[in-house]
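Input (structure):
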């Protein structure tokens, strides 16, 4: 599976799963666009990519802003001339019981997790339509398909990502653009750190995983490389669950 000379944009690439995706693309020889709202994290990932010998562009963007999504596309084209892959990975999570969740929390969650995917995918699709080629990979979550306590807003936003994936896949298929989704299970990243700091929660989550351990960011790289590569050219509108088997039981 080669991604040599491909250009891959990864949102939320400053840490966690997004960083692993970005480094995974770099190891396969792709040019990587590290998109994040946090400048220092983004720059530190860019340094790691340079050390791997790949070309990198850092784009400090807020995925909830249309102008930022358009600039991300513009700057990528200036640096690399084309966009082969977009990974919509940036996301946020907070835990709140359904009954006390607020309207403000609703908008915040949906702004990043749903609107962010919509805006970045739309901006990039315009270029991919011109190219008549492209791969869009949306990062959802097993929370979209399995009920989890205190995650009603998060889960439903990730469910929307699945619906958006299928709708986009259908409309973009005539342009040879494949749109797929990855559903990670609980993975040791800064996002999950708060929940995993509670030993009871950690033990409970781990015991539900048939493969016997929580995920590491690197566990997700194979799935993203598959959806980004030519090997997945006849696969669109699909979901790949990477969760150690958690959601099958
Ligand atoms: N960690 C898990 O257990 C887990 C499980 C299922 C799904 N996911 C999903 O995987 C993706 C990555 O999760 P993670 O655990 O690596 O999270 P993380 O919080 O560790 O990293 C998320 C990154 O996104 C960036 N980001 C947040 N808001 C942004 C915005 N508005 N614009 C640009 N960048 C922004 C952050 O700065 C950060 O670098 C998310 O979509 C998350 O919902 C994570």
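Output (sequence):
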């Amino acid at each position: 599976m080669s991604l040599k000379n491909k250009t891959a944009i990864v949102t939320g690439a400053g840490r966690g799963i997004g960083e692993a995706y970005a480094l995974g693309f770099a190891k396969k020889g792709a040019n990587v666009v590290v998109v994040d709202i946090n400048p220092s994290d983004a720059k530190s990932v860019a340094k790691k990519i340079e050390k791997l010998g790949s070309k990198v562009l850092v784009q400090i963007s807020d995925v909830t802003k249309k102008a930022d999504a358009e600039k991300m596309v513009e700057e990528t084209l200036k640096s690399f001339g084309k966009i082969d892959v977009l990974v919509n990975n940036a996301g946020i999570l907070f835990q709140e019981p359904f009954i006390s969740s607020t309207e403000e929390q609703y908008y915040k969650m949906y702004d990043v997790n749903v609107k962010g995917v919509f805006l970045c995918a739309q901006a990039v699709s315009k270029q991919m339509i011109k190219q008549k080629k492209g791969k869009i990979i949306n990062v959802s979550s097993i929370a979209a398909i399995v009920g989890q306590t205190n995650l009603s807003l998060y889960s439903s936003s990730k469910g929307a990502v699945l619906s958006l994936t299928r709708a986009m896949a259908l409309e973009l298929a005539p342009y040879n653009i494949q749109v797929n989704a990855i559903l990670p299970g609980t993975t040791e990243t800064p996002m999950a750190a708060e929940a995993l700091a509670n030993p009871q929660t950690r033990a409970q989550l781990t015991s539900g995983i048939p493969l016997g351990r929580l995920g590491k960011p690197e566990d997700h790289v194979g799935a993203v490389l598959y959806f980004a590569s030519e090997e997945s050219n006849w696969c669109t509108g699909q979901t790949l669950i990477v969760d150690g088997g958690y959601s099958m039981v």
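Notes: The first strand starts at residue 7 and ends at 11. The helical segments are 16-27, 39-51, 66-80, 103-131, 152-172, 190-196, 199-207, 221-228.
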